[in-house]
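Service request form, structural biology core

Requester: graduate student, group of Dr. S.
Request type: structure prediction, single chain
Budget code: on file
Notes: please return the result as structure tokens.

Sequence provided:
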Amino acid sequence: MDVYIFKRKHLLWQYVLGIFAVIVGVLALIRDIKGVVPLFIGGYLLVENGIAINFDNKTYRSFRSIFGITVGPWKTLPNIEYISVFKTTEVTTVWARTASTNVSSAVIQVNLFYDTNKKIEAYITKDTNTAFDRAKSIASKLNIDILDATTTDSKWL
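Core staff response, request fulfilled:
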């Protein structure tokens, strides 16, 4: 079975805080029902989002995964027209008590485009070469072209 899977990575602090909250929640549940609150917060922090594409069955799914349990319905893969690799900015909001700030970082996205302007987000990274490797791998399996939009002058590969 030829399946491509991409899980969006969490930041280290999300893993640490999530595991800590789950442990506190489980221990608190022994004494009181209020332990459900940190348990749910920890679960929320540990949930991973991603996408899976089954090239044999021509299906895909956006999924959520926690502790190895993955859920999300499989859908028929639409007629993908091309793959776009482009630079964008990812913004993360960081909260500290009553103040918040937005932290932005440059990332490279690999998207599968269909029906002219609809897209499936297939990969995100900070490394351009890794993004193109993933795009080439997917493009060869779907027999489609790649649009390099990492510079102001887009070009077909």
